[in-house]
Amino acid sequence: MRIIVILLTVGIVIGCSNQVEEAETAYKSELKELILLKGRDPVNQKVLSNPKLKARLVKLMGQNKYDTLV
Questions:
Q1: Is 68 found in the same domain as 46?
Q2: Percent of the chain predicted with pLDDT > 90
């Protein structure tokens, strides 16, 4: 029983630290200018036409699904 508790505790600690690291890298990434647009209308701000974001979305979704999204 103690082993299970220890493993779960270690897993939770590692999982939480990974989220903090991801958040920190988001502020340092090349998409950090998008953070300033939080809460604004993405269509009016032309977020999806950002070349860096577009390249990531096309890589993730494929060109056909990206075109549908836009």
A1: yes
A2: 0
Contact 47, 37 (CB under 8 A): yes
Domain that holds residue 63: 31-70
The dihedral built from the CA positions of residue 18, 19, 21 and 22, taken in this order, carries a sign that is positive
- The CA–CA distances, whole Å, from 24 to 12, 32, 52 equal 19, 11, 19
**Rg over CA atoms, the chain:** 18
DSSP H helices, 1-70, are: 2-28, 51-61, 63-69
Tokens of 21: 């690291």
Residue 15 and residue 48 in one domain: no
- Residue 47, token pair as written in the block: 């977020």
pLDDT, average across residues 41-55: 83
Same domain, 25 and 35: no
Q: How many domains does the chain have?
A: 2
